Structures are given as C-alpha cells and as structure tokens.
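Trying the structure run again after the queue cleared.
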Amino acid sequence: MRRTTPVGPPAPDAPLASLADLKADLGVSDASQDARLALLLQDASSMALAYVGRPLIDRAWCDVIELGCEARQSDLVLGRYPVSAVTGLTIGATALDADAVAALPVNPDAGIVYPPDSGHPRCWRAARYVVTYRAGYTLDSVAADGTAMRGTLPASIQRAVRLTAAALWHATGRDPLLKSESEQGVGSTSWDTSAAATGGMPQAAADILDAYRPAGVA
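Done. Tokens:
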C-alpha cells in the first residue's frame, strides 16, 4: 500500500507553454490580444493536466509505503515522477543518513527507488517506508540576476498545450458543433475539433500527451 501526499508550498500555477511561442504559432505580432491569449494558455494547461491525470510541475512529496509480512520487493515505486531528488528515507523507526540516501539507486523517469547496492539480498523487506523526494518538471524562469533559466518541461507537452490554446482561440465566436464551412467561389475551411474522450482538447494534442499518462489511465 502506498500513500502519496504533497509537502510544502504548491507548484506554481503557471501555464505550461509560453505566450511568445503561442503568438508565434498564431502569427500574432502585437500585444493587443495578450490578456486573452494568456487566459487561453491557462485553460489549455488545466485541460492538459486533467487529461494526463497526474501533477507535472516540480514540488516536494512524501510517500508512505507499507510492505506486509514476509514481503520482499526489488523496488519501491513512488507516486510521482520524474524524480529529481530523493531527500529522505525512513525504514521503520530508522532514518538513513544523508550519504546513504544520496547513494540510493533511482530510476528518475519511472519514479523507482532500488535497495542499496550493498544490500544482500538486494530487496526491500517487510516494513513501513517513508520516502521524501522532489518530482516533476521545472518551468522556464528568470534568476535574480536576470539570467534566463531553461526548465525541464518537455517540448512535446508545451506543444500540446499550444495546440489546445490555438484551437480555443480559433473556436472563439464559432458554433462548437460546426466542423467546417464553405463559400461558393471562395473555398472551404475546416477545424480540428476535439474528440469526446480528450476533455475538450484537439485529438492531436491528446495523442502527444498519451505518452505522459500513468499506466491504466484511460
């Protein structure tokens, strides 16, 4: 059994893609629509998070994992990933020191903590494990000295959010049931409409985000 709870301040409530990139996608060169586009980016980010079904932005977490009597496991699967750092591990009433925690083998992308290399046999035995760690992607930011800091949020997630925001932008003022229209002598226009199972996102955006959904989420 595993219980995952957040620790400390929440992750920043910031959009998962930049306004500048969205404006470039849409060919918008002035600032007259910035407020509207910023709201659409926030809506698109919320839709992406809801579809993925797990937090994506870096913050601190604590997992309590109970392994029952006679249990032996080759790994501890954490509730959040990717893991950027394991900061503490308590086994029963014993807390590992900082050096032992830092030496733990970890698969960050899968959120898995393996037993110490010195363990014989190498497995976690029946006990109560409390793991504190940081997990999630970071956003682009600006340091106190003005230096631009590149985040770790994958470009594919940002692209999916921009696709969704762009679809919301093009849908403004249009009948949501309208998929295409044509005018004789002028041509026709069609829109990438959302599928029922994507939470309002274009199918192309959902297809991108499928890779970040936990196993079993449908």
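Residues 59-135 form one domain. Worth checking whether this holds up in the mutant runs.
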